[in-house]
Amino acid sequence: MKIPGTKSANKEHPMHRELKSDLSERWRLFLGPIIAAIFVIVMCANLLAGVLVAPTIVFLSDKNRTGRMTIQNPTNTPKEVTVKISFGLPTSDSLGNVYLTLQDSNVTDPRSALGWIKAFPKKVVLPANGTQVVRLLASPPPGLGDGEYWARIVVRSKEGELTVPAATEADKITTKLNMVMQTAIMLKYRTGSLTSDLELQKASARFSNSRVIVTVDLANRGNVSYMGVLKCRLLDPEKREISSNQIDIAVYRDLRRRIELPIEGKQVPSRVELSVSNAGRNDIPAEEIIPGNKIEYAMKIE
Questions:
Q1: Strand pairing of 57-61 and 66-72?
Q2: Of 10, 31, 119, 244, which has fewest CB within 10 angstroms of its CB?
Q3: What is the mean pLDDT of residues 283-290?
Q4: How far apart are CA 232 and CA 94, in angstroms?
Q5: pLDDT of residue 35
Q6: Of 122, 125, 57, 52, whose CA–CA distance to 83 is shortest?
Q7: How many C-beta neighbours within 10 Å does residue 87 have?
Q8: What are the φ/ψ torsions at residue 285 (nearest 5 degrees)?
Q9: More confident position, 35 or 61
Q10: What is the pTM of this model?
Q11: DSSP the chain
Q12: pLDDT band at 8 (very low <50, low <70, confident <90, very high)
């Protein structure tokens, strides 16, 4: 790093080296707390900033090709909001952690609706405590097969500039950060005959410290996403419940999920019972859930 006010030279005086070393140390000691402060500021901004979006899933169909989504600015400052259509399905790693990767091009999934879903408006400045309705239009290609097609409505809100103050007047260090929040809402377009069918491919349960880790591999065999709840119960040899847990699942292709079941005191776990069904999804209107099969399975702990 070149220090302002110094000149390059082929041979450096020892005093210059000492001065540069001293300045580098001052910068390191100064920038360390600033970087830490930036992370704290960003974390706090993520909790307090951004916009509210409803609903959390948008449903369109061959009977109703238009929809709407509401974006609200709950803060006292204006926000610049952009809306675009992308594609992305929840996928999982070997540990059962779920993540989402968004794609804007080169999508090869046959169930992608990217390219024929439009949003209006695409960009708007929301005033303080303001609300904007975004309208959605599906223009599917002719001859579309039965089933469900997917896209993501990506909403980004840009916050005001955040300036990091200078250490001293002499250093004149200023850094500006643009706070950006993003959320990706699932859009589902349905046409023709719809079937919801889930297959349990593999399940295992193992001890890990004072808990049991359950790993479940699921595969979607229908032509719509399977929306349900995965429940697990940890039982002792007399089939008395030690603990239980449940998670919402959305299976589009293949998915691995993990559930942790705590063990307390001197309890002796013996087996795990799991079930998967559509029951219990209170975050989705009942009329929008395509009823599917129910899975029940019991296994010993490894």
A1: unpaired
A2: 10
A3: 94
A4: 20
A5: 39
A6: 122
A7: 25
A8: -55, 135
A9: 61
A10: 0.77
A11: -PPTT----SS--HHHHHHHHHHHHHHHHHHHHHHHHHHHHHHHHHHH-S-EEE-SEEEEESS--EEEEEEE--SSS-EEEEEEEEB--EEE-TT--EEE--BSS----TTB-TTSEEEE-SEEEEPTT-EEEEEEEE-PPTTPPSEEEEEEEEEEEEEEEEEEPPSSTTT---EEEEEEEEEEEEEEEEESS--B-EEEEEEEEEE-SSEEEEEEEEEE-SSS-EEEEEEEEEE-TT--EEEEEEEEEEESSEEEEEEEEE--TT----EEEEEEESTT-TTS-GGG---B--EEEEEE--
A12: very low
Q: What's the confidence (pLDDT) of residue 264?
A: 85
Q: Which single residue is written with the structure tokens 């993520």?
A: 46
Amino acid 84 reads K
Q: Are 154 and 102 in contact (CB under 8 A)?
A: yes
Asked whether residue 118 carries a pLDDT value surpassing 90, the answer given is yes
Domains parsed from the chain with CATH numbers = 54-191 (2.60.40.10), 198-300 (2.60.40.10)
Specify the amino acid at residue 207.
F
